[in-house]
Specification:
Elements lengths: L1 H14 L2 H9 L14 H7 L3 H9 L14 H7 L3 H9 L14 H7 L3 H9 L14 H8 L2 H9 L14 H8 L2 H9 L14 H8 L2 H9 L14 H7 L3 H9 L14 H7 L3 H9 L14 H7 L3 H9 L16
Helix pairs in contact: 1-2, 1-3, 3-4, 3-5, 4-6, 5-6, 5-7, 7-8, 7-9, 8-10, 9-10, 9-11, 11-12, 11-13, 12-14, 13-14, 13-15, 15-16, 15-17, 17-18, 17-19, 18-20, 19-20
Length: 339
């Protein structure tokens, strides 16, 4: 009799038939029965988004975290299904609000990832932990930043999230916004108090990352907020060196206007003008020369910009350099000059 009732409850839940499920339970069906495919009755009800049946099973004693092989954490599955009603029903019944899936995503992180903001807000109100990190090292706050969810960012900051906390690569929220090239998000985070001179695992700052991306609007916002125009990051590169390296003319002009060191050297002793010559960028060379860059600066091998232009047979750049005072008599580390 009970075996038949268990089969009936599984069939009823599978078909979403509340009355049949109730009848089977009244006959003695096990609310924790496990059927074909390893689904528990409750796991299947959640899978089917059957709200009334879920509530019925909980009322009749279904285990909130059944040991079925498909969905051992029914709350996680409810969140993934986007069903806030079932999720809150399970939480009220004692489900672990901070349970994690195989990627260490909590219900809160999953709700944010699915842009289920109302559900996420309910989870916050219910006491969800905002410090837990998933496999990508993202907290709920960082997940909200990557999703570009302004409402959730605000809600999490209000709940106590650290605006300067770091995730993978020791990147802060502001760095994530720069990476996304989201100008409005950058403005929002700066206004909320984000550190504009924070550094990642490479020692790069938000301004450096913006210079690499070539997003002049973000560069302007960070400079306006006090970003260090001469911060040295990976390889001893400054924002200006990275701008030249990546051939971003607008960024180069903006950084020079902001007072960037035009003679800063990277680990190879290269200055912005030397890199511009190596990149074959005549206009960049001209701008740097006119801005007062040392035309005769040398790299670690003693090479000047003029030597490099001559070696690469770039006559236009060589002419530009000579017109701006490049010395053809300077010798490199092997005692060779351009002449």
């Amino acid at each position: 009799m009970k075996e038949n009732a268990d089969r009936e409850i599984m069939a009823a839940v599978y078909n979403g038939d509340y009355e049949a499920a109730k009848t089977a339970l009244d006959k003695g069906a096990d609310p924790n029965a496990v059927g074909f495919g390893g689904y528990s009755v409750l796991g299947m009800a959640v899978e089917k988004n059957a709200e009334e049946i879920t509530a019925l099973l909980v009322e009749r004693g279904a285990k909130i975290d059944p040991s079925d092989t498909k969905h051992s954490q029914v709350l996680i599955n409810a969140i993934k299904k986007g069903n806030a009603s079932i999720a809150m029903e399970l939480i009220k019944a004692g489900a672990d609000i901070n349970a994690c899936d195989l990627d260490f995503n909590t219900p809160l992180i999953l709700a944010i990832d699915k842009n289920e903001n109302k559900m996420a807000e309910k989870l916050l109100e219910a006491g969800a932990d905002i410090k837990i990190r998933n496999a990508d090292k993202n907290t709920p706050f960082l997940q909200a930043v990557y999703k570009g969810s302004f409402d959730m960012i605000s809600a999490l900051l209000k709940a106590g999230a650290d605006i300067n906390e770091k995730g993978a690569g020791r990147k802060s929220a502001l760095m994530a916004a720069v990476e996304k090239e989201d100008v409005e998000l950058v403005k929002f985070l700066i206004k909320a108090g984000a550190d504009v001179n924070v550094t990642d695992m490479d020692g790069n700052s938000p301004l450096i990352n913006a210079a690499i991306k070539g997003n002049v609007n973000i560069v302007k916002e960070i400079l306006r907020a006090g970003g260090d125009v001469n911060h040295k990051g990976l390889g001893n590169y400054t924002p200006l060196l990275f701008a030249v390296e990546n051939e971003h003319m607008d960024v180069l002009k903006e950084l020079i206007s902001a007072g960037a060191d035009k003679n800063a050297e990277n680990n190879d002793g290269e200055t912005p003008i030397i890199i511009a010559v190596k990149r074959g960028k005549l206009k960049m060379v001209a701008i740097l020369a006119n801005a007062g860059a040392d035309i005769n600066a040398r790299d670690l091998n003693g090479n000047t910009a003029l030597m490099i232009s001559a070696e690469r047979k770039n006559i236009k750049i060589a002419k530009e350099l000579l017109e701006n005072g490049a010395d053809p008599m300077i010798k490199d580390s092997r005692k060779n000059s351009v002449l």
